[in-house]
Amino acid sequence: MDPEPQSQSNTIATVEQSIDRLAQHLDQAKLSYGHGAIDAQSEALWIISKQLQISPSDALEQLQAPLDHRLYDAALGVANERIQTRKPLAYILEEAWLMGVPFYCNEQSIVPRSWIAELITEGALEPWLPADGRALDLCTGNGSLAVLLALSCPDIHVSACDISAPALAVAARNLDRHGLSSHIELFHGDLWSPLPDPINENRFDLIICNPPYVNAASMRKLPAEYHAEPVLALAGGEDGMDLIRKIIGNAPDYLSERGALVLEIGNEVEHFHKAFPQIPVIWMDVSAGNEQVLLIQAEDLR
Q: What is the pTM of this model?
């Protein structure tokens, strides 16, 4: 690897030049991405924006502004920690951005990311959310999808559930951060077990879930950045479908008559079709493609 970029103490550089210099440094380290940034340039932007205490999108509007050398030195320190530890940048900064919304983040929960977030913010799920409707974020982790749901549809009732108490502690911080502690109800337990018995008034119009779905072979090949996350949040068993079988098996009891279940399955489409050949699904179009997230209507689960 080339020597690390020098301190800017004797030079004046713009935000854009600083991002480019930092990106080259990160790129030479052969890191793996996918935790809120797609490449070295995106992570460099993220690091610089954090030092400026603004969002990455706001930093893009200030590219020609000068960057104080002390801020660059701090950014360089973050980049070096990223390289040395191979941890996701979100854990180092204790913050991640999803659809332009900031979330607190630590190693007790998976880094906020889900293609379902696109569907929420674009309004693609609203046909299944009547006014005063009820939604559940199953396997909520850090609570990011529940927060996006509540922010996008403030007139609905949102619940969120996770088996991990530490992850729910992170979720609680994010609810508080966005003023939603009294709006979103958190449940601690394994899938459906902590939820109230599913009588009519307790059923959900929409259930969203980004469950652990990585199959065993893929788990063994994941780069170091992904192994820094809780295994519980990633591993889906031999074919990636262990949790999804339990989710689909009980979802009919918890869905309203015209409700729907939205599942992210990532790259496990072949395993999904093999496990559930009889279930008709609606594939939802997201930026990663049209076989990453599926929707199953309640009537097709009964």
A: 0.92
